[in-house]
Structure formats: C-alpha cells, structure tokens
Amino acid sequence: MKDTTVTVLMPVYNGAEFLRETIDSILSQTYEVFEFLIINDGSTDDSEEIILSYDDPRIVYLKNESNIGIIDTLNRGLDHSRSKYIIRMDADDLALPHRIAVQVAYMEDNPDVVLSGSGKINFVNGNSTQDMVIKPIVGEQLLYFNSIFNTSIPHPSAIFRNDIVQKYHLRYDHHFYGAEDKALWLDLAAYGKINNVPEPLIRYRNHANQISYTKLEEGRTSSVAKTFETLNKLGFSLEENQIKALSLLCYPHNCDDIHMLESAQRLADKLTDKFREIGMCDAAYVEDFFTKRIKRIIVWSSPVGISLFRFIYKNKRFKLREFGYVFYKKALLRAKK
C-alpha cells in the first residue's frame, strides 16, 4: 500500500557490517506503513547485496553510480520524497520498535513543531554493559538556544516536516560539511518550533569508523561557522575576528593565551546581554550557560600560568576558591617555567 505520511531516509556507504541489523530495526516498527528510502552511495562492500536480499514493498532502493558523499546523497533523498514527514536513520544505528509511532504522534499533536528529535542510548558494539541513556534538551526555547552553539538534536533521531523543506527549498549545505545536520536544523527553526521527545528512541552505536568521529575537527569548524551566521541573523553583529573566541565558547578547550581567554569572556558577556535584551531564553539559564563554559576553559588552561589568577580575581562570574589547590599548583608550576 502506497503511503505518503512517512519516509525513513537512510544513506549507506560501505555499511555492511551493521546494515542488516539496522534495516531490521526499521522494518519491525510498530508503525508499519511507511516508505523506507535507502540510498547506496557507491558502496564497494556487500551493502547492495544485503539491501537487495529484502523482499519488502516498503523499501525504495536508489543507487548512486559513484560515491558522491553524504550531503549530496541526503539531498537526493529530499528531492525524491513526497511524504509528510521525513525520519532520518543512519546505517549503523538502531531504531527502538516504537520510534516511528511515537514521533509521528508527537508531530501530529504539535503542528507548530517543524523538527523533533529524541533521547538516545549510546552503546559500544558487543558490550551492552556500556549502554548509556542520553537525555535530550527539552523545551522549545532552551533547545533552540543550545542548538545555536552545539548540535542538540541527534541526526539519526530526527523527524521533520517535508512541506517546509520543499516550500523553502531547504537542503543540507556543503558549506557546513560535518555540521550539515545542525545547519539544516537551524534553517528549519526559522519556520517553526523545534523540540525533543524526552524518551530514547534510538540506539546510537559508537565505533571508530563512524563519520562523526572521522570528521570531528572539520565538523566543529563548520558548526562554529553556522553559529556565527545564525547569531548575526539574530542581530548580534559579530565580526570575523571574534570567530576564535566564539569557537572557544562553542567547544571549550585548553587555551594558552590569556588574551584569547579575555576575548572569550568579553564575547560571553556580550552574548549574555544581547540574549537578555531580545528575551529569547531565560536570562538566568543563559548566564549560567556561559559561566560554565568559561569555567571549563579556565580549568583546562593552567598553561596560561600566573595571569589566570588575575583573570579569575577580576572576573565577576567567579571566586578564587572555586578552582581548588591542584589547579593553582599547576598554574604556579607553569609560571616558573
């Protein structure tokens, strides 16, 4: 039976190792009527043989003649689909049996929501004792605020409205390779609300060859670029010379330059004031968000040495006693070198 409510969109590139398990998790859903669009992106392993071994009318199989990459493959899927909803799936993850039913019901009950994700269970292949339930950010304002800075809707947990995608010609963007999901989520958010279903609906497999690991640094650079673009669309008037400081706030890490740390602090203060002015998110939450991020940068930045003492002492967000003996010992040792 032809159905126009749901398309499950799944690209595959050399995914044979986990592919059968993933396909089975979709075909065994309690919500039974959907299109399962599998696009083989020029695989050279047994992926095609596995896909063609299924005799299920819900599977629609497309094959790229060569490996064109995940962004163009996903966009081919968007071009093909005419369903009301698109559900994303990756070829190495698992959908819990009620995933589609829960997500379709949520979207039907919330017509102003254009995009939704869910919680997830992170797992290491073959080791169920390491299962970890990851609770998502819930609440439209909180989720949108967090999504500006980091990807807060797991890509393989997403469901979104296809009419919005088609009406406004939204697609995955090569300019944000590695963060193409975050970029599309923020584009969708311009046309409605976004939210997460609290319960975990996917099992997210952690392994060394998954794309999210192999393109980590490039993805972070793209993510910060989309953050920069989004903040300026919202009227924050950031300049190119603030991108490094913005990157520190998006992905806190060690900093060996006190001037860069001071730049990140000034930017955090500016963002906090502007978010308070526009009233997008709870002011106390925003203040706490940036305070925690600056604190993480400080804790990892003992190589800065003695100047960290002055930075903390003059900083209205912190007290010297917050950081402890070990931190100050490391900073002092660095100062003596």
UniProtKB/TrEMBL annotation:
Keyword annotations of the record: Glycosyltransferase, Transferase
Annotated Glycosyltransferase 2-like domain residues: 7-156
InterPro entries from the UniProt entry: Glyco_trans_2-like, Glycosyltransf_2, Nucleotide-diphossugar_trans
Pfam family, one: Glycos_transf_2
Database matches in SUPFAM superfamilies: Nucleotide-diphospho-sugar transferases
Transmembrane segments: none
GO molecular function, one term: glycosyltransferase activity
Family statement: Belongs to the glycosyltransferase 2 family.
Protein name, per record: Glycosyltransferase 2-like domain-containing protein
Species of provenance: Anditalea andensis
